[in-house]
Amino acid sequence: MTCMTDNGFDITVFKGSPSGKIVASTTHKDSLKPDEVLLKITHAGLCGTDLHYKTSGIVLSHEGVGIVQQIGPEVTNFKIGDRAGWGYLHNSCGHCDECLSGNEIFCSERAMYGEADKDQGGFASHAIWKAGFLFHIPDEISSSEAAPLMCAGATVFNAMHLYGMIPTDRVGIIGVGGLGHLAIQFAAKMGCQVVVFSGTKGKENEAKKLGASEFYETKDMQALEIGAPLKHLFVTTSQQPDWNCYLNTLAPHAKIYPLTVSADALSLPYMQLVVNGITLQGSICPSRGTHIKMLRFAALHHIKPIIEEFPLTEAGIEEAIQKLENGEVRYRAVLVAQNDIAGKSK
């Protein structure tokens, strides 16, 4: 809950801890600044990145959705009662070359999850953010479905939107999981021929329902034979693939996009990249303009994450984390505020 006092706001939050246990705590904010918005959080997504921070003591979750409860006097783009969400990026300088080019995600002074604002997150009763870094949720998307789009959906759309993928391209997606099941939908709705690779044969029917044109099981594979080569390859698995197999599926000038977070070194066969002009393209969550386009595209084409809901409590977060660590979530976990379960906020 949040308690507004003469001294500001006391907000209930859920943090990680050195043991990995989720603990309830309180974040205090002195006031609502002129350009800020107070949100009552109704839904928050659990991302694989949260697992990397569960022992760091920060408030977890960067996939938050809620209802606007108060606005600062300078806020003109939100009103009380609006639904709004936020993702990885909370602020930027606004005046560097990257910001002025619409690439504020690369601002050297960016405020991002895990690096700044560690006393706030999606796993909380409320949050206070700058209005300029919040996003309106389209009516076509429920709040529970919107939460995973704040990071997972935004991440895959960003790579597809920014780096030259066109509707006539043949694209590969490695993995049918939290990122992969959304990547299949976005690529298919963009008009691409979508080739899916998975170590689980049982996911073939689901992958094709999501929009895959072809499906290849990769468990114990020695080589990949897929016919026409791929122009883009999106790696959505937590483990690196067998690059020797996958590089042989790529067309000249193809691009590879590693989309998951890992502290491991990236090791690729050198000569195949050089002689075929292959690009290894880094990509992160989008800047705001692309994020807004992602939401519009998802609303127009009815792109929806497959979710499992858990209560937004210490026990609920613990359960969701345990299932994610065990690889049992299908495919995004969403924590739902208890007072929202009965009301089912849109």
UniProtKB/TrEMBL annotation:
Keywords of the record: Metal-binding, Oxidoreductase, Zinc
Keyword Metal-binding: yes
UniProt cofactor(s): Zn(2+)
SMART domains for the chain: PKS_ER
One Pfam family, short name: ADH_zinc_N
Residue ranges of domain Enoyl reductase (ER) in the record: 16-335
GO MF, one example: metal ion binding
InterPro entries referenced in this protein's UniProt entry, alphabetically: ADH-like_C, ADH-like_N, CAD-like, D-isomer_DH_CS1, ER, GroES-like_sf, NAD(P)-bd_dom_sf
Protein name per the record: Chaperonin 10-like protein
Source species of the chain: Suillus fuscotomentosus
